[in-house]
Amino acid sequence: MLKLWRFLRPDRPAVVLVLTFTFLQTMSTLYLPNLMSRIVDSGVLRGDVAYILRVGALMLLVTLLGGAVAVLANWYGAKATAGFGQRLRTSLFAHVEGFSLHEFDQVGTSSLIVRTTNDVMQVQQLVNMMLRMMVMAPLTAIGGIILALYTDARLSPVVIVAIPILGAAIYLVMGRGLGLFRTIQTKVDVLNRVLRENLTGVRVIRAFHRTDHEVERFAGANGELTDTSVRVFELMAAMMPLVMLVMNLSTVVIVWWGGKEVNVGTLQIGQLMAFIQYVLQIMFSVMMVSMMSFMIPRGQASALRINEVLAIRPDITDAADTRRPDSRRGDLEFRHVTFRYPGAEEAALSDVSFTARAGEITAIIGGTGAGKSTLLHLVPRFYDVASGQVCVDGVDVREMAQAELRRRIGYVPQRAVLFSGSVSANIRYGGDAASDAAVRRAADVAQATEFVDALPEGFDAEISQGGTNLSGGQKQRLSIARAVARHADIYLFDDCFSALDYRTDAQLRAALRTEVTGATVLIVAQRVSTVMDADQIVVLDDGQVAGLGTHRQLLRSCAVYREIVSSQLAPEEIA
How many Å apart are CA 21 and CA 71, to the nearest integer? Predict the structure, then answer.
């Protein structure tokens, strides 16, 4: 938890004001019983109405002052903790944005969402409470004990017995609560993951009629979270009755014991009332600590989970001395590249070497699991090679700044990803400065203009989250348009033509060849018809280069390519 206090530093003036106003509020609260005692013992006994009114007015003034500073303390406390939460969420999000795909897999998307939202909220609430309670509770307890002893030390055994009982109870609750709250946050991760899978996979669930199974799966995760929460709240529920029991018994003992002293004349009624108020204030401070004992374990568990994410150092970082290529042609070279996924026993790519030159289209084809997409992921440094080099214009991508490298790349993923917003906004995501004409031009190249113009609002039509209101082929075409609008030096198309019909596929590739003249183009595809017109075809088989050349050259020299072609084309088409 202490590691996160640095996010409060920008609001240091507000924190100082919170502590100051809380201190004043506590002092006013401790002063009121003394004034009450003076009214009862001096004013009432003497019958001095003027004295009662004068001290009563002072009590009213102190009460108003205490209320005013309490409001100010709450206001500045809310301001400080809101800023704390905002900075913590921003820092957490920015840190996660620097993760490689390996770190995302390591933590899990669902867990990252919970840690950025729910866990930050728990810590924020704890900080808000601590800013007030960590001043008020100790001062109230210490001041109350001193003033109670000053009023009548003979009644002090009541305080000496009551406080250790409450302290022991709070210690036991905090000790058991921390482990349970960590479990709760883990259960929230599981529940969030199940919910996300059900929402994103609703079509598959309904197609296979697995709704009942998923309801049971959700109910199981929800039930585990509920059971753990019930255990926690049962533990916490025992705290308040115990505190109230000790407070009430203490009051009864004080009244009984103090009444005897009043009866013999060794204690005045006002002093007895003041002593009761001081003991109640001491108990109230203990109640505040008990409330914090409810919040601290959960906040501490959330803080640990947040620190786990902040402590992760991304595997892929910029070099200390970055380099920039002398030219901006976009030549791409793989030099004896070997890559193994973290934790995998076998390499996904082994000794892969070829060059993709600017102005040419290089296609990559191979069977499932051959390493085609993996090869493309090495170019923008989603992963780094285990050995060998991936070079852009003669410079190893690991020596280039990531921002500079990725600015030169137009990437279309295998799974089309669109964002909520208009069609034009999604296309401009590839190039913020793209004009309306450039957006339409990119859509023309991607063969998307026809269906976009058919939408009621055209390029201003709204796309739902994930593009769920579009077909697979429409999403792919908009993803391609987004990359084209970037005017990049290197284009990476990761099997993004699979949802297109053959006619649209051919038209798109023809338009693409005209549009990206001078750029380096890498196309990963399963269809032979998509790659056969490429300037160069790389055939991958089990992570190794099985063939390299044009369509005709590979038909003569590469058995793997011939097998792929024969499985897709008729003999007369091959001829």
Answer: 9
Among residues 382, 403, 381, 367, the alpha carbon closest in space to that of 560 is found at: 367
pLDDT digits 0-9 by tens, 405-455: 888 888 888 888 888 888 888 888 877 777 888 888 888 888 888 888 888
Q: Are 24 and 69 in contact (CB under 8 A)?
A: yes
CA distances in angstroms from 300 to 179, 305, 442, listed in the order given: 10, 9, 51
- Report the distance separating Cα 344 and Cα 93, nearest Å: 28
DSSP-based three-state secondary structure for 538: strand
- Structural domains of the chain ordered from first start: 2-310 (1.20.1560.10), 332-574 (3.40.50.300)
Q: How many angstroms separate the CA atoms of 512 and 360, rounded?
A: 12
Q: What is the DSSP string of 337-371?
A: EEE--TT-SS-SEEEEEEEE-TT-EEEEEESTTSS
Could you please report the per-residue DSSP string of 439-475? HHHHHHHTT-HHHHHHSTTGGG-EE-GGGTTS-HHHH
Give the DSSP H/E element, type plus range, for residue 502: helix 502-515
Residue 335 pLDDT level (bands cut at 50, 70, 90)? very high
What distances in angstroms separate CA 84 from CA 5, 9, 124, one per listed residue?
9, 9, 7
Q: In angstroms, rounded to a whole number, what is the distance separating the alpha carbons of residues 498 and 530?
A: 9
Tokens in use for 463?
């796309």
Kindly write down the DSSP assignment for every residue of 157-190, as one continuous string: HHHHHHHHHHHHHHHHHHHHHHHHHHHHHHHHHH
DSSP-assigned states of every residue in 196-242: HHHHHTHHHHHHTT-HHHHHHHHHHHHHHHHHHHHHHHHHHHTHHHH
- CA dist 390 and 332 (Å) reads 7
Residue 334 has pLDDT above 90, yes or no: yes
Asked if 477 and 439 touch (Cβ cutoff 8 Å), the reply is no
- pLDDT attached to residue 114: 83
- Name the CA dihedral angle for 36, 42, 43, 44, rounded to a multiple of 10 degrees: 90
Report the distance separating Cα 336 and Cα 387, nearest Å: 7
Q: Secondary structure of the chain: what % helix, strand, coil (to 5)?
A: 65, 10, 20
In Å, how far are 32, 60, 96, 212, 368 from 52, measured between CA atoms? 14, 12, 64, 74, 92
Q: Distance between the two ends of the chain, CA-based, in angstroms?
A: 71
